[in-house]
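Progress note, project year one: complex with BES.
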Amino acid sequence: MRSIILTITLVIIAFNSFSINDLHSFARPKEAVITHLSLSIAVDMDKQIISGVAKYNIEKSANATQIWFDTKQLNIEKVLLNENEKTNFQLSPERPFLGRGLSVNITPVTKTVSIYYSTTKESAALQWLTPEQTEGKTAPFLFTQGQAILTRTWIPIQDSPGIRISWDAKVKVPPTLLPVMSAQNPKQKNETGEYSFRMVEPVPAYLIALAVGDLHFITLSERTGVYAESDMVGKASDELMEMEQMLISAEKLYGTYQWGRYDVIVLPPSFPFGGMENPRLTFATPTIIAGDRSLISLVAHELAHSWSGNLVTNATWDDFWLNEGFTVYFERRIMESISGKEYADMLAVLGYQDLLETIADLGDTSSATKLKLNLKDKDPDDGMSDIAYEKGYFFLQYLESKLGRTFFDLFLNEYFKTYAFKTITTEEFLGFLNKKFAGKLDPSQIDEWIYKPGLPTTLNKPVSVRFDLVDQELKRFVEQYTKADKLTTKNWSTHEWIRFIRKLPANLPAGKMNELDNTFSFTQSRNAEIQFAWFMQAIQHDYAKADNAIISFLSSVGRRKFVLPLYKALFANSRTAQLAKDTYIKLKPGYHSVTQQSVDEVFSMK
Ligand code: BES
Ligand code: ZN
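Model obtained:
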C-alpha cells in the first residue's frame, strides 16, 4: 500500500513539473527523467576526442518502458542498465539542429542508465585549439559551450532547460594541463592528470561546461578568483579586482549567493561569446580585459545570472527573456550600486540604441521582436536577439517605475526565493506578478510588452547626462566646425567614446573621419568595444585606412557579436566584399562553430 501511494505521488510530482513541452528536446520527462549524472571521461587533446561514460540516475512513471535522451554528433557505443545489464537502444533519424533522439529500453527495476560514447570532429559544443591559437602558444586548449542546445553534442543527455540534475565528473587530461568545470574546481595541476568535480545543486544541461588548458589561478578574495593562461592571468586579475564588491552588491539586492565560489575563466580570443554564466565559473572573452576595468559590466551580467537563469531558469527557449531581460536589469542595478547612477544610465542608453537598431533590423511587426518567442521548428540560436535582453530590461524598468523601486525589489527577492532551483514559463511569471500586484498594473500594457511586436508605447526612454555632454561635443565637431583636438573629451570613459563614435553622422566627410582618427587614434585602439564601434563606422564611411586593422581584428577575435556585423558590413560594401569573403575563408577554421554558423549565412555558405 505504502509503495502504491509513493508511486502515485511520484507520478503526480513528475507530471506537474514536466507539463511544459520543450520543442527542442527529444526527452519525455513525464515518462522517465534523469536526476543525477556521473560523468567519467578522458580528454584526448591530440586526437581531439572526448570519450567515456555518462551514467544517469533516473526516475520513471510506473509503466515506462523507455527513456529518451538528446544526442548530436556523438558516437554511442553501448548502453548498460544498473551498470551491468546490456540493453537495446535506438537512435532516431537526424533532425536539423536537434540531432538524434536516443531511446533506451528500460525495465521496472532500472535505477541507472550508463551510456558509453565518444565525441566526433563535428561536435559543435567543442572548440579544440592548437597551441598556436592560444595566448601562450605552447599548449593546446579545449572549451565547451552548451547554451542553447549544444551540450548534447558532447554529452548524451536530456538537454532541456526544464530538466535539472545534480552531477559529478571524473576527467582525465594530459598531466601538463588543468581541467576546470562549472562545479567545484581544482586550483592547481597534479601529476596524474585525473580530477574530480561535483555540482550538488540541480542545474539544467546547458550549464554543464568544461575547459582544459595550461591554466593558472589567482585568488581575488576568499570566494572569488580568476583562471587563465599564464600570459593573461595577471592582467585578468587586475581587471577583475572588483568581483567581490559586485558579489556583495548583488547579494544586497536580491539575496544570498547560492553557489559557493564565484570564479571567472578568461578564455582564448576565439570564445564566441562575451561571457557565459556557467555556475561557479563564468567563461569570458579576453576582449573584456581592456586595461582600465571599463568593460567589467559584462562580469556583473554573468554574475547576475547566478540568480536570473541559473537559480530561476527559463522553462523553454521561448521564455529566454526571463533569463536575459532579468539579467540585464540586475546587471545595471549592480553597476549602479558600484559605479553610480550616471554610469548605469550610460549602459541603459547604449542598450536603448541597440534595441532600436534590432527592431529596425527585424521589422517592427516581426514576431521575432516579441518578448515571448515562438521558436517552433527554429534553431533557438537563430531566434535569440537583443530583444530578450533590452526589451526585457525595459519591461522590468517599466514595472519598477510603476510599482516603485522598494516594492519592486521586494518582489524580485521573493521571486528568486520562490522559484530557486526551479524553471519558470512567461505565463507563470505573469501569474506570480499578478498575484502580488493585482489592480496595480494595467493588463493591456503588460500584454503589449510580452505578446506584441515592436517598441511598447509605455517604454520609458532612458537619458544620460554624461551622454548629453558627448552629444554637445559631437555637434560642435559636425555642425560648428570645431577642430577635433579642440573638443572637450578629457576624462571620457570607454562608454562616452562609444557614444561619440556610434553617433557619427552617415554623411561625415572622409576628411573628418581622418581628422578624428589622427586626433584620437581610434584605428589603433586596444579596447575591443571602441575598435568595434569605430570599425563599423570606418566600413560605412568607406574609410580605407582602417582596412588592415579590421582584418587583423577579425583574425585575432572570434566573438560573434563583433565578427558577424563586421563581415556583414564589409560584404555589403562593394569595395570590400571580395576582401571580406577571402578573409573569412582563410580565418573560418579558427572560429568556434557558433560563430562559423552565423557568418556562413552572410556568405550563403550553408
Ligand atoms: N547566456 C548568454 C550567452 C548566450 C546566450 C549563449 C544565448 C548562447 C545562447 C550570456 O549571459 C550573455 O548574454 N553574454 C553576452 C554579454 C552580456 C553582457 C550581454 C555576450 O556574450 O555578448
Ligand atoms: Zn546573459
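Residues 5-16 have pLDDT under 50 and may be disordered.
The chain has 19 helices and 21 strands.
No further modelling is planned for this target in the current period.
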